[in-house]
Specification:
Layout: H1 4-25, H2 31-44, E1 49-54, E2 57-59, E3 62-64, E4 69-74, E5 78-83, H3 90-103, E6 107-112, H4 118-121, E7 123-126, H5 128-131
Parallel strand pairs: 5-6
Antiparallel strand pairs: 1-4, 2-3, 4-5, 6-7
Length: 135
């Protein structure tokens, strides 16, 4: 079972690799470029990564056929939503939180590569699944 400490470390590691990609490429490219490079770095460093993963939406007994896809899911624990836009908006945060809820994942990272400094624009999120984890 994952612990809060191990998930926090995983998020820290993901952030470090995002910074590495950003330092190499800089801002101004398409989101898909950053996604492929970050996925490559994560896999190269031994992480399990799913990308463009289908997010099922189930309401009561109804499973809806909608095309929701998250950018990256790392070690079946941390949802990573990537952007390459001037400024993230509340809708992007809501999107990430919804993916986390639908997939029952405890932590998420909203990373915007259209910035001079990833750490200043990165937004980490936790939900009730994180609070239920052991320390």
């Amino acid at each position: 079972m994952e612990t809060k400490t191990s998930i926090t470390q995983l998020s820290y590691d993901i952030t470090g690799l995002a910074i590495k990609v950003h330092k190499a490429l800089g801002p101004g490219l398409l989101e898909c470029v950053y996604e492929k490079c970050l996925k490559y770095e994560l896999i190269k460093n031994g992480y399990d990564v799913q990308h463009q993963m289908f997010v099922p939406v189930i309401y009561d007994d109804l499973e809806m056929d909608v095309d929701l896809r998250l950018d990256l899911l790392v070690n079946d624990t941390v949802v990573v939503e990537l952007k390459a836009i001037e400024k993230t908006q509340p809708v992007h945060e809501a999107q990430l939180l919804t993916y986390m809820k639908l997939l029952k994942k405890p932590q998420g990272l909203l990373i915007n590569f259209f910035t001079e400094n990833i750490t200043k624009s990165l937004k980490p999120f936790v939900n009730e699944y994180f609070r239920e984890l052991p320390d």
